[in-house]
Design goal:
alpha+beta, 153 residues, elongated, three-stranded mixed beta sheet
Length: 153
């Protein structure tokens, strides 16, 4: 009589588990770095959008930058040549809107905040300097995987 074996031996199962463990040890760190890289890329993209909107405002408003206290309205609503903003367009409020909404900060301690101000605060995601039109992330010591501070992007 022939004895047909239809099961895996213990050695075969151990080899499969070891191979799966090795694959997992290689793949999991790569996936976690990908999530951090996505947040870094989101920050770069959001800063580019904000900076482009500020530059367009500057170009259409006689080389003046949005004011710190009203920048959110000036970028998301219609404005006149002096920068006064309102929700609807009319014969004097011809410019904008430059953004649908202010993006939220994707990294750091203030992650999820979309406020814009000249200094850090509880609801502030972005630090803006009206004199030069520069905007940066509201982060102090947080850095990306390469060690570059987010507020220097």
């Amino acid at each position: 009589m022939h004895n047909n074996r239809r099961a895996f031996s213990l050695i075969e199962l151990v080899i499969v588990v070891v191979i799966l463990g090795i694959i997992g040890a290689v793949a999991i760190p790569r996936m976690s770095r990908g999530a951090a890289g996505a947040a870094d890329s989101a920050l770069v993209a959001d800063l580019a959008v904000l900076r482009n909107a500020i530059d367009l405002f500057n170009a259409e408003h006689a080389s003046t930058y949005p004011a710190v206290g009203t920048i959110a309205n000036q970028l998301t609503q219609f404005s006149d040549i002096s920068g006064a903003a309102q929700a609807t367009s009319d014969s004097t409020h011809l410019y904008g809107p430059y953004l649908r909404a202010i993006p939220t900060l994707p990294v750091g301690a203030f992650k999820g905040k979309s406020g814009i101000a000249a200094a850090s605060g509880a609801s502030i995601g972005w630090i803006y300097t009206a004199a030069s039109g520069t905007i940066v992330a509201n982060t102090t010591t947080e850095a990306d995987a390469r060690g570059v501070l987010y507020n220097t992007y």
